[in-house]
Amino acid sequence: MLLFPNFSKVYGKETRDFDIPTYIIVPKATPEEIVQILKNAAEKMANDLEFIKENRKIFMRLHYVDGDVVTKSLLPDEIADSKPSPKKCGW
Questions:
Q1: Hey, which end of the chain has fewer CB within 10 Å, N or C?
Q2: What's the whole-model pTM score?
Q3: What gap in Å lies between CA 70 and CA 73, rounded to an integer?
């Protein structure tokens, strides 16, 4: 079995954990019924104890966030933070 390295062992004890978001994106015209099926499946998978156990073996943590929360709250903040401002660029 291939295991990913433990970051604290490789980079030192002061290394922080970091999130790697994974999104399920569908076309705008996707029927709401399909969107709900995908949302429910993703949430069920992220909360499945066996899935969580297997992911811990490769040092992965899971945290489900509903798509509405992402698009209305988290994503706008991420976009705002990623836009270069004159102050950030030293202008």
A1: N
A2: 0.57
A3: 6
